[in-house]
Design goal:
Helix content of chain A: 40-55%
Number of strands of chain B: 0
Low-confidence stretches of chain B: 1-21
Shape of chain B: elongated
Low-confidence stretches of chain A: 1-7
Largest sheet of chain B: none
Largest sheet of chain A: 2 strands, parallel
Oligomer: heterodimer
CATH architecture of the largest domain in chain A: Alpha-Beta Complex
Distance between the termini of chain B: 62 Å
CATH class of the largest domain in chain A: Alpha Beta
Radius of gyration of chain A: 20 Å
Chain lengths: 196, 121
């Protein structure tokens, strides 16, 4: 049974992480149980579903949408979503004339409370560079064809401002309630690399 | 469905709602959470970590996103030493100790760890 090994030597990098955590724990700077909670929180409880509920509410409630577009952070907090990296949110509305897409050109600034942790490609240097230089081409690689007469706006998230896209409501969804609408909203739609 | 493309060195998500894994290995989640927790606890200002992370990413500009959390770890090491929480020497020493004394050492011979023999009545 070679596939069952507890005792594979730990990688150099895993040992570095362990050393940091142990020393900070011994000095009382961190609590391992609190770190467990953070891991659990980001892996299972926050994520794109939070953002999807924000979008569904905005599609359903014009007053909420107006609040979201005017000042996103308190509007998002109305639904109970706030916290680290979600303090300075801006919602960008996609329209028939404008398609918005979000990047962090320097690192990986991303609105954790509404979208969870960023996907692998969001952190990749090619995405970070190319979405600025040739957004239509990159969007096409995501399967998103933006019509020539639509303006594409690329937004650079930072530590100060974090963007999420309010996608256009898909046609034929007039009869759906918020829960059904939220199920249509994807993470990539809220980053702006896909349309819904 | 999204269309993967060779120029994006990424496992593009196959579903829209969060398909691609954020953490490839447990240590990535650990170091992410440790940095996040210390910030939430007010141990340091987020900006001071971000500057270090950007610097680490820029210094390894040619790499792909698979080593993103290695940059995160390097930035964290600089953060905790720069803030005076621990010294670089202590980190190196602890790492060496951990490497020398794995918590679950390799057993000499493969085999069952315990055997509960058949019962005869």
């Amino acid at each position: 049974m070679s596939g069952h090994r507890h005792n594979a030597p730990e990688s150099d990098i895993a040992l570095r992480v362990k050393a940091i955590e142990q020393l900070l724990t011994e000095k009382g700077i961190v609590d391992p149980a609190a770190i467990d909670l953070v891991v659990d929180y980001y892996e299972t409880r926050v994520g794109p579903r939070n953002g999807a509920r924000v979008v569904a509410r905005a599609w359903s409630d014009p007053d909420y949408k107006a609040r979201l577009l005017a000042e996103a952070t308190p509007a998002i907090a109305e639904l109970g979503f706030s916290g680290l990296q979600g303090e300075d949110m801006v919602a960008l509305e996609n329209t028939p004339e404008v398609h918005n897409v979000v990047v962090c050109t320097l690192c990986s600034c991303y609105p954790w409370p509404v979208l969870g942790l960023p996907p692998v490609w969001y952190k990749s240097p090619p995405y970070r560079a190319r979405i600025v230089r040739e957004p239509r081409a990159v969007l096409a690689e995501f399967g998103t064809r933006v019509a020539d007469d639509v303006e594409v706006r690329v937004w650079d998230s930072s530590a100060e401002l974090r963007y999420m896209v309010l996608p256009m409501r898909p046609a034929g969804t007039e009869g759906l309630d918020e829960e059904a609408l939220a199920a249509l909203v994807t993470r990539d739609g809220m980053i702006g690399v896909t349309a819904l | 469905m999204n269309t993967p493309h060779p120029r994006l060195p990424a496992d593009l998500p196959s579903d829209g709602a969060g398909g691609s894994p954020s953490f490839g290995e447990p240590w990535q989640a650990r170091i992410f959470a440790l940095v996040a927790r210390m910030c939430e606890d007010g141990r340091y200002d987020w900006e001071s970590f971000k500057v270090l992370l950007i610097d680490e990413i820029e210094r390894h500009g040619r790499t792909d996103s698979s080593d993103y959390y290695e940059r995160w770890l390097a930035a964290c090491e600089r953060l905790v030493t720069g803030q005076g929480f621990v010294s670089a020497a202590d980190l190196a020493e602890r790492k060496a100790e951990l490497a020398a004394h794995p918590p679950h050492p390799t057993s000499a011979a493969p085999g069952p760890i315990a055997i509960d023999p058949p019962r005869r009545t």
